[in-house]
Amino acid sequence: xxVAGVLNLPRSFTYRGTFRVGSVNATVWESQRLQxxxxxxxxxxxEMVSSDLHGTRLDAAAAALFPDFSRSxxxxxxxxxxxxxxxxxxxxxxxxxVDDRLQLTPVTEARVDWAAEDLPLDIxxxxxxVIVLNKPAGLVVHPAAGHHTGTLVNGLLAHAPEMSAIPRGxxxxxxxxxxxxxxxxxxTDLAHKSLVAQLADRSxxxxxxxxxxxxxxxxxxxxxxxxxxxxxxxxxAVVPDGKPAVTHYRIAQRFGAFTHLTVSLETGRxxxxxxxxxxxxxxLVGDPVYGGRATRPAGASDALLxxxxxxxxxxxHARELIFFHPDSREQLSFSAPMPEDLSALLECLHTEDPx
Length: 355
Fold this sequence. Notes:
By secondary structure, the chain is α+β, with helices and mostly antiparallel strands. 19% of the residues lie in helices and 24% in strands. The protein contains 7 helices and 16 strands.
């Protein structure tokens, strides 16, 4: 581990946890300084439709050409006339053709009005641009229906009130309520733009530990599109017309009836790891949504059965996060230790479910 001083950051910061710093691959930073790329409200972007987007929906093409913004937000701007198709208003479902011109005048998101709450935060690293945290299982990331208070964002707004001026309170990626592990948030507009771009161009790396049912012959890749479940709209599923989703996995530890996987994401769809593994008939241990009916492993001991019955959240932990610092452009890596419940589960499997 190198000391944090190698970052050469101009202001004070705090650090705790596993941390590595490496050299920046120059190809990631071919554009001018990000400060020059931050758009003010009213400044228009213009892009031409490439051949690979010919025949796609207008909102889908816009999402590919303007990756800083979500497809749903771009669809709203199409309806509002802020995204023009060949200088004319259109509809999200309109088809585009090669060399069509899309013009976008984005709207700066209004300041969020979520309440600040003094909540405990497990901060791994913080400076004036970003904050890296270890989120415990059970903590909702941001306010939503049924969870208006007590979320990570509520705590962040109390810790750093300036984050209320950042879109979605600085959150650039999410973890499910019952997924634990390392998370990243932006404290400035510059950082937000940079981190969103890194997610879009896949230069940000996210590595997870997952414990699932069944055994594997080896590592592999799951490349299957994800979208809303055709019947249960609160669930996601592998569907033919879904968004591209790619999950890579390798075996970390084999057990008799279970496997500990190291998983990395090429895309970041909602519930991606949970859905992909369940689709491959290897659902995560404890997953209340995608786990299906729990089967009794042949010859399982009472101790193993009791441990499995008591584990009631998906066995998924965001172990490591690697990104480029928005200002220094250094590549940073942070990891969150395995939480006690997952450690106990692994210990039980090692003892009670040997390969």
